[in-house]
């Protein structure tokens, strides 16, 4: 008779599971505000960093929303899919997201390079507008995602290649879904801040603005490569 190895849960995972159980049971209803980090730390008898990790994990799988300076709330719309075996439903989707990222690496690095060659001043103002919106909505996940998608679509438009533009527009919904899921994986896997993602987009913008085709290609490859690394980790964790 063989058994699967049992891995002890970390402190933040225990906290996460207890909070999630109360959400699942309806004790914490959609839209309800959770106690502060300080209060939760005292209740659970753990450090504040453990609470923050637990809340970040719950945010990553769609159970809570963390509002900058406004506290943490149960998501108004809870995930419909139950956790998949060996990992969350989010991580179970990682394979399909990775396939789309592989396409994006081929398509969007070319877009960035060609945009650096063909862009106009109007293109740069339009792309810059989306970068400014991403910065203005650093802590508004939905609006940040929308600006992120438009940034990439406007970058494609700056190539002035009608076929590339059509290809990007045809996959715009998939692009939006991919960014939504990969952003969650990024924040969950890296504990990264939105500002780090903003800097990567800024690097792409600056390279295109400088008409540096090589730097634009490399900046886009770096951006997508980092997201792919988080995906690979998520897939590996889900397999164990």
TrEMBL record:
Transmembrane helix listed as a keyword: no
Any Pfam family the entry gives: FCD
CDD domains the UniProt entry points to: WHTH_GntR (cd07377)
InterPro entries the UniProt entry points to: GntR_C, TF_FadR/GntR_C, Tscrpt_reg_HTH_GntR, WH-like_DNA-bd_sf, WH_DNA-bd_sf
Keywords from the UniProt entry: DNA-binding, Transcription, Transcription regulation
Signal peptide positions (record): none
The HTH gntR-type domain, residue ranges: 9-77
Keyword DNA-binding: yes
GO molecular function: DNA binding; DNA-binding transcription factor activity
Domain of life: Bacteria
PANTHER family, per the entry: TRANSCRIPTIONAL REGULATOR, GNTR FAMILY, UXU OPERON TRANSCRIPTIONAL REGULATOR
Record-given protein name: FadR family transcriptional regulator
């Amino acid at each position: 008779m063989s058994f699967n190895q049992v891995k002890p849960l970390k402190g933040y995972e225990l906290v996460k599971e207890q909070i999630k159980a109360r959400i699942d049971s309806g004790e914490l209803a959609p839209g309800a505000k959770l106690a502060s980090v300080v209060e939760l730390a005292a209740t659970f008898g753990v450090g504040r960093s453990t609470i923050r990790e637990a809340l970040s994990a719950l945010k990553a799988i769609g159970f809570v929303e963390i509002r900058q300076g406004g506290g943490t709330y149960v998501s108004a719309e809870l995930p419909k899919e139950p956790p998949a075996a060996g990992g969350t439903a989010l991580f179970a989707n990682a394979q399909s997201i990775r396939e789309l990222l592989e396409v994006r690496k081929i398509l969007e690095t070319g877009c960035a390079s060609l945009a650096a060659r063909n862009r106009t001043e109007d293109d740069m103002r339009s792309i810059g507008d989306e970068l400014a919106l991403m910065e203005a909505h650093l802590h508004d996940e939905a609006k940040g995602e929308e600006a992120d998608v438009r940034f990439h679509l406007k970058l494609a438009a700056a190539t002035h290649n009608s076929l590339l533009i059509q290809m990007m527009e045809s996959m715009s919904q998939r692009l939006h879904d991919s960014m939504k899921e990969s952003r969650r994986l990024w924040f969950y896997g890296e504990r990264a801040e939105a500002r780090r993602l903003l800097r990567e987009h800024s690097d792409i913008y600056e390279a295109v603005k400088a008409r540096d085709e090589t730097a634009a290609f490399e900046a886009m490859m770096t951006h997508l490569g980092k997201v792919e690394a988080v995906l690979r980790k998520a897939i590996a964790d889900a397999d164990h």
